[in-house]
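Example record

One chain of 861 residues, shown exactly as stored in the release files.
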Amino acid sequence: MMSRSYTNLFELASGEAPLPSSGFSRAAKKLSRVATVPGVLSELDDEGFSSDAPSSICQERMIIVGNQLPLWVHKGPDGSWNFGWDEDSLLLQLRDGLGEDVEITYVGCLREEIDPKDQDDVAQRLLEKFNCVPAFIPPDLFSKYYHGFCKQHLWPVFHYMLPLSPDLGGRFDRSLWQAYVSVNKIFADKVMEVISPDNDFVWVHDYHLMVLPTFLRKRFNRVKLGFFLHSPFPSSEIYRTLPVRDDLLRALLNSDLIGFHTFDYARHFLACCSRMLGLSYQSKRGYIGLEYYGRTVSIKILPVGIHLKQLRKVLDLPETESKVAELRDQFRGRTVLLGVDDMDIFKGISLKLLAFENLLMQHPDKRGKVVLVQVANPARGRGRDVLEVQSETHTTRERINKKFGQPGYEPVILIDSPLQFYERIAYYVISECCLVTAVRDGMNLIPYEYVISRQGNDKLNEALGVNPAIPKKSMLVVSEFIGCSPSLSGAIRVNPWNIDAVAEAMDSALGFAEPEKQMRHEKHYRYVSTHDVAYWARSFWQDLERSCRDHVRRRCWGIGFGLGFRVVALDPNFRKLSTEHIVSAYKRTKKRAILLDYDGTMTLQNSISTGPSSEVIRTVNSLCRDPKNVVFVVSGKDRATLTKWFSSCDELGVAAEHGYFLKESKNSEWETCIAVPNFYWKQIAEPVMKLYTETTDGSAIEAKESGLVWNYQYADPDFGSCQAKELLDHLESVLANEPVTVKSGHNIVEVKPQGINKGLVADRLLTTMKQRGMLPDFVLCIGDDKSDEDMFEAITRAVSGPALSPVAEIFACTVGRKPSKARYFLEDTTEILRMLQGLSAASEMHSLKNVSKNFQKVVIE
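Predicted structure tokens for this chain:
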């Protein structure tokens, strides 16, 4: 198995680093399953590889990738390594929801450093016995990746902590980012060793591996890939401070399904995609999706659950029963409030202690009767902030105990040594209320474990001396900033920063009547027991299958370099327009119709110089001079602007304002495609638009002869979009009985007479040519946005009608690879102009040949 890491990080960041081959050829022979591609993976070039190779393996398999493998590791006295399943690992527990017929392979790191000389043997043992593929990361690289970038940059920012000073998380360090990318690439290599891309699904977990989807998508364009983020996703105002924000977003969008615990996290992610990448999402039949270069990236919102079987198994242990009896005697006559948290800066332990101190101050009757047991698990990170939290927690506990303690009564009991799982369960069982007051946490399953533990069983009822016929009860005080909060509707939600409110919540939880506590417990128990980890995994698996269903029906192209790589997925019949092909058809035909959009087709959208270049004018004039051609420019611009721009094009037809105005040549008069008696409705629509313009900074009204456009291109993206929806509803309401259409487009809301669209120009042109005895045998239509789709639809519809020659050559072409009704595409305006110049050159060549023939005829005569 490979164990070598990448050293050339500049190659790596560009996505062009070769796969390491050291040790691979030997280990590859031992693998039970490898990628079904001829040859050795290390010999395959990233750019030239296609994932269309047939696979001989049909069984479904899930490759689960996480930072750590779900294994415990122990080195024996003789130096041998021992391994076993870690029953507490979420990655192991989720297999209960995938079904017995799904093979599961794990990819991740081990918790212990393995000597390089032992790595191949250990890797083979783990693959054969546990179906696990270890990623061996050199210690210095792992430290930069995990303790560096993950814990110093991603973790703080995702928990709303900005590096405002070197002491708060540290400044951005490019070398740590390169280490992060490097480790993600090593993980990708490990997945590539065992994946069968046509059959396998890949499920990547958490923020440690956020750029992994890009490396996998680059190698296998149709890889079936899901990603679940187990931490919060911050608001766009926080996330945008990350220097590598776009790289991370684009990497995640190379997944097919992205999962979040709560709608808030998903909403923040979607807002970031909107503000930083200009992507908008749609909700259809209950599913949220982002259109990303022809691929639909689905968004999944579902909080993870607990492993019920494991928890109930621990509840049945004799050790648990014994511990419960011990704690019952220890706290006899007292009410226990319980907190279970990691010792880190985001769990709010000190705030909880201050709130408990406030409770004892405001309610003297609670002194001597109420005890707060705070279990402080060892911190997962390290650094000065952890030491400060530990110091503050111990100092606060000592002060409270000194202030309110009595002989035989210690108000705060702090347990900062690791507990066995059964011991923690015992504390749940004897506690009247559980307090989870983290200032920020991705999910937190402590409340779920508490609810199930309070339900208990017959043995525990006996140990507690509780009548099993009496309904169980439990109370929860939870922070509104943790992921499980929305799912616990019966909990008392608090702002952990408001110490007085948390103290009041503690008092309320203890003071509720027994039926109220029982009802809240029953509500929580019903939810937690039905939404366990198996339910969560099964739901994600089903949505991932749904999201990948149309992979085989799409044509895929990889574009971009490095972490900017993405895949364009399009209809199989959609292909790039070959200049040689269209020029050949152009030469064969004699009656040609050419329809050209302007903005985004012959000039760049939103370009500072909006008028046509001399090169464009020269090319258009050349096409117009060919007597076999009828050329039209079809634009949304007003007729005065188009007249000015194309004044030197005598034979050019022009359609303005999306086809409302039309003239066949420079000397023709402007006509209207549709008769509109009057525009009195503008007097209704314009005041409404002005209202929204005044309240939306960066918006403006564009008044046209045929309609009104509200443009919010320079407004705040979220606010502008929100205002646009409101304006659309408002206009549809006040104009419901008017002969107009209200439409929303890219950063616009437009009101125009019914029936006006660019398809009218295409229909009219083809009909007019037929009436004049010029039945078109060649049609070229080029456009770049939604308004041009009407033209594509019109000429496609005309194929089966009398307006075209039965042998007509049809070329509907859009700009850029994107979903379209057009059959062809060209990459950009440069390619469009080059293709049009190819056509004009063919016309000029034909004209020269005719002149030469006529000259020869005159000489002979």
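Notes: The radius of gyration is 34 Å.
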